[in-house]
């Protein structure tokens, strides 16, 4: 008996392979997507800097932290060498954004030098856009956990 024969489905037809179980996965994906969308809609409706907004951020963070600790993914092997040029581009961009936020905070964000937060807030002020931003944030967190 070969390993190919062991992995075959013992159905009516000899040698028939097991049919894929896509129906259950599709149903699970639809339920998870609907739940995630509903959660983002509720989280997007919270008043900024309120207890409900804090809980809407802490709850998925705690869930993702438990998932990351409980089921750690397989580690990615480090590269043999680091691309110093590519790293320096990212470091310069991050340092520039940090300096922008720090100087706006120091100067108390005058209108002629707004902080990044003050520039982004009008863009995500409508409820659907705020909910979409929460969804992108959650999916980015899930991507980091899976990585």
Question: What's a concise summary of this model?
Answer:
By secondary structure, this protein is mainly α.
Please characterize this protein's 3D structure.
The protein is an all-alpha fold. The chain has a domain at 21-73 and 113-146. Helices cover 65% and strands 0% of the residues. The protein has helices at 3-6, 22-44, 51-70, 84-106, 116-120, 127-146. It is flat and about 60 Å long. The relative contact order is 0.10.
Contiguous low-pLDDT stretches (5 residues minimum) are 4-10
Distance between the termini: 39 Å
Main β-sheet, in a few words? none
Specify the helix fraction band. Answer: 55-70%
* SS-derived structural category: mainly alpha
Shape: flat
Average pLDDT taken over every residue: 82
* Number of strand elements: 0
Keywords:
mainly alpha; 6 helices; 147 residues
Describe the protein's topology.
Blueprint (H helix, E strand, L loop, with lengths): L2 H4 L15 H23 L6 H20 L13 H23 L9 H5 L6 H20 L1
């Amino acid at each position: 008996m070969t390993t190919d024969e062991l992995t075959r489905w013992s159905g009516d037809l000899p040698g028939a392979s097991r049919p894929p179980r896509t129906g259950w996965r599709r149903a699970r994906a639809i339920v998870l997507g609907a739940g995630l969308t509903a959660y983002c809609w509720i989280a997007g409706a919270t008043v900024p800097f309120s207890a409900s907004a804090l809980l809407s951020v802490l709850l998925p963070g705690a869930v993702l932290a438990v998932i990351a600790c409980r089921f750690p993914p397989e580690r990615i092997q480090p590269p043999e060498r680091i691309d110093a040029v590519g790293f320096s581009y990212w470091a310069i961009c991050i340092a520039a954004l940090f300096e922008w936020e720090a100087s706006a905070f120091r100067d108390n964000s005058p209108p002629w030098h707004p902080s990044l937060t003050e520039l982004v807030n009008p863009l995500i002020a409508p409820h659907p856009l705020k909910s979409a931003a929460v969804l992108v944030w959650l999916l980015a967190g899930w991507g980091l956990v899976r990585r």
